[in-house]
Design goal:
The protein is mainly α. The chain has twelve helices and four strands. Strand 2 and strand 3 form a beta hairpin.
Length: 305
């Protein structure tokens, strides 16, 4: 029983870390731009397709590439996803920064659909599921009945490091000071010679790259990637950010762990629990919005009229 609980706890932490890498992007973008970037999940799940294309290109140009080739392909995918976020902001999202929130919401939903369909058509057999390799294959057996995959350790360790670096960047670097200044008062930041446009570009690159890492982990955890995985990943990431409180990075992490915990418990305890896990996850979102509309760590905004 103890080994089974440890195994489920490991699954919970792994899923929670994957969700958190996507959820922090929603919170950070909302905190800086005050815009819900609904296509963020689709941007994040472009990364596995870029990694597969890069891996095929590396394999064709050099023999003997396995683990090193996969590592290089993943690095290329993370950087390319960050650049994609900047390009999409420049092409579409920046035009809605001062528009009503509903216009930006509809625009980013449409952008996500366009992105998914583009991946499905441009990638060979892109509308079919594509096998995605496990990023690391080794397993450990510290106790009888308990398997500790190195992949899970990679996901948990990488997520902790990335989130810690994000907090350090926001709190202790000049870029972080500029990001926080723009998020608090865009016009005052402009008067202090801070360019909001450059801050937006940097924010989109960071959040999209971190989301791309989450997308790679998501595909590797599932063992497959699909052109429409961004819908589910985006909804879960957004829901986690809403549960924690949009604009709060700690809230996004706590929300991700809560949703992943509920997901794991439902799959482990209910018959055919995998079919109902999202039902319970979104019921949690509804309950939080009913009893605490700003989220667990969010603050209610008061506007004077």
């Amino acid at each position: 029983m103890t080994a089974e609980l440890m195994q489920q706890g490991l699954n919970w932490l792994t899923l929670g870390c994957i969700y958190a890498l996507i959820a922090v992007g929603f919170s950070l973008l909302f905190g800086v731009l005050k815009v819900i970037h609904f296509s963020h999940g689709d941007v994040s799940l472009v990364a596995p397709f870029v990694a597969l294309a890069a891996l095929q290109g590396l394999s064709a140009s050099a023999s003997g590439l396995s683990a090193i080739g996969l590592l290089i392909a993943c690095f290329i995918a993370v950087v390319a996803t960050g650049i994609l976020g900047v390009v999409l902001d420049w092409l579409v999202i920046r035009r809605f920064r001062d528009a009503p929130a509903m216009m930006a919401l509809v625009a980013t939903v449409a952008l996500g659909i366009a992105l998914r369909e583009s991946v499905g058509h441009l990638f060979p057999n892109g509308h079919n599921p594509q096998p995605f390799p496990r990023l690391i294959e080794a397993d450990f057996n510290p106790t009888e009945g308990f398997t500790l995959p190195a992949f899970n350790l990679l996901v948990i360790g990488s997520s902790i490091v990335v989130v810690a670096l994000l907090f350090l960047l926001l709190r202790h670097t000049p870029l972080g000071v500029r990001i926080r200044a723009v998020s608090q008062d865009r016009e005052a930041a402009r008067l202090m010679a801070i360019s909001p446009s450059s801050v937006f570009r940097a924010t989109f690159f960071i959040t999209s790259a971190v989301g791309g890492l989450g997308g790679l982990f998501y595909a590797s955890y599932a063992g497959v990637t699909r052109f429409d995985f961004g819908i589910q990943a985006g909804l879960i990431g957004f829901s986690a950010a809403v549960v924690g409180g949009l604009g709060s990075m700690p809230g996004a992490i706590i929300g991700s762990l809560l949703i992943a915990g509920l997901d794991t418990v439902v799959q482990a305890t209910l018959p055919d629990g995998a079919s109902y896990r999202l039902v319970f996850a979104f019921l949690l979102v509804i309950l939080v919005l009913v009893f605490r509309p700003a989220g667990l760590f969010g603050s209610v905004a008061v506007e004077k009229v």
